[in-house]
């Protein structure tokens, strides 16, 4: 049985706008259907090629058993290590929908212990998705490129090799409440009390909550209460959780900074709508390697005019945008700079333009220094 694709799975292949972030900005029904088809094909190919044994163990080329690094960082800037897929030990399990889910062996054992603990408190969880191979992601990218073109695919599909789900250590959950599976994201977020109880227990089993709320400018993804990450160290998991920091911050991969967000006042948009747009900006900012974000602010309703809307349509003539917003950011560039940004410089009033179609989500169209 194949159900509607949830954001938990989609953030690996397409990050949809309900969570307000990420790799892909499109959330049209057509693209969701295409992705679901691509993932189904990839899963079928992977299943037919999988060995009969439940667990697989690989060795290094020299014949010696090689271990994985459970503290590995895989995100939009850090790819999966080359050795990983030949080394990671994977088990297969079946969820309540009959889907085959691949998980790293120790992460799966820890998940079963967490699941059993939660059930003693009347909380029931299941696995929506976990590991997706780089080859699966490449097939999804190729499918989108063939159907919609390279530009659309690059904007919509996560870059193969840069998804944490490749590790087998990232687990996406769904809930079972009163005997009914709750797997759609817009439904799952209606149970914050249940997620809070789940999150409280995560460190006891070596898990952390991977994508924290208001930390999108570091992780590159919106808040996902269902996305867990196994790190195989209870003490470290407790430290990360107690400090309320991201995995990137704990590893020293980014410099923590206090960020001021100002949504001002608007007669055109609700604060929730502006927050959804701002998350898109913050998720993209996470790809500005080494940059420290200081502030983000809505410029006001005066920027949401016909002239700017027409400019967005020119930049993306495949869409019928009806609304536009502008945000400004202040941030500091890294000491070594980049091909685009000058080194060790305070950037002020850096522009970000977003637009949306009728009944659609915000799409980040362009960003530039004014």
Task: Tag the structure with descriptive keywords.
370 residues; alpha+beta; Muramoyl-pentapeptide Carboxypeptidase, domain 2; 5-stranded mixed sheet
Examine the secondary-structure arrangement and name the CATH architecture of the largest domain. 2-Layer Sandwich
Compute the average pLDDT: 85
How many strands? 13
The global form is globular
Number of domains: 2
CATH topology (level 3) name of the largest domain: Muramoyl-pentapeptide Carboxypeptidase, domain 2
Radius of gyration computed on alpha carbons:
21 Å
Helix content: 25-40%
User: Which parts are unreliable, with pLDDT below 50 for 5 consecutive residues or more?
Assistant: 1-20, 22-63
Strand residue content: 15-25%
Distance between the termini: 50 Å
- Class of the largest domain, according to the CATH hierarchy? Alpha Beta
